[in-house]
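Anyone else keep sequences and structure tokens together like this?

Example one:
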Amino acid sequence: MSIIRKFGDSSKELSNVRTLAVCAMMLALRIVLGIFSNFTLAIMPFVKIGFTFIPIVITAYLFGPVCAGIVGGAGDILSIILANPTAFSITPGITVCCIIEGMIYGTVLYRSKLKLRKVIIAKAAVLLLCQLPLYTLFLCFLMNMPYLTLLWYRAAVLVPFAVVEVLIIMLLRKPLMKVQVQVHKK
């Protein structure tokens, strides 16, 4: 299936009430995980480890890149607003990275078998296109640190954690395949 068709089919998914309900639940989970499951390392405050990828991957697999991008972007904005409403500090570049991450996962995983190779490709693309270069660039501006220094610190933590993320996604494989059948039942 072509990438353009995946985006078209994913946008058509938004007309289904069941899709909207599941996406709303995934958005709620993304917000809760964004507030409570992010861990910042004490020695490296610019590296955040969390589990916000889980609802984004679920949405990407079930409903495609458009829905996953919406859940990723809206989840980023809403978790910031709800976590600390007095310090309204949304960074548009980071929000765009969250949207792109969802779109990458959706492009690779939507309407395909959830195999280890696909999951590794999706995670590698997210890591190499978003989390390391772009996200680090926006953090560089926010923290006033040299880009390459920040990049190396983030890579030292995010690359090993990518293995954990792939393992978690593979653990979700069987339940996701069952859910996919139920969600797309007419």
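And example two:
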Amino acid sequence: MRCPFCAYDDSQVKDSRPTEDNTAIRRRRQCASCGARFTTFERVQLREITVVKSTGAREPFDRDKIEQSVSLACRKRGITPEQIDRLVSGVQRQVETLGDSEVPSMAIGEMVMEGLRQIDTVAYIRFASVYRDFSEARDFEEIASEVQGGTDG
């Protein structure tokens, strides 16, 4: 494994353990050159998934993109990195078990929104505002009333 600090090609595994939800192996590594320590994660990938964008463009499924978007929506909300990782792992499992090698980005976005809605309504609205491209205050009002109706009923 290449060191992210000095780019040396050799590192030594110091500790390995499963993640909390047993969907990955967490490895603590130390660079043989500079001595820096870093963490890597090893996950099972069932198949190669291609994401089909609304424009028709295709790109490989990238778990990190989902994780970054979810982390941004959850910023300053008291949501732990473990909760975010569980949500992203759940979305990834759903995508991989659909059985299709091509998945519309809209379907992935809806999975993320459903996961966020269960964790934190503010993070859900933040994500929805970007994902659904809100352009005016009425868009926020509609989704906020949808959330309030869903939690009261």
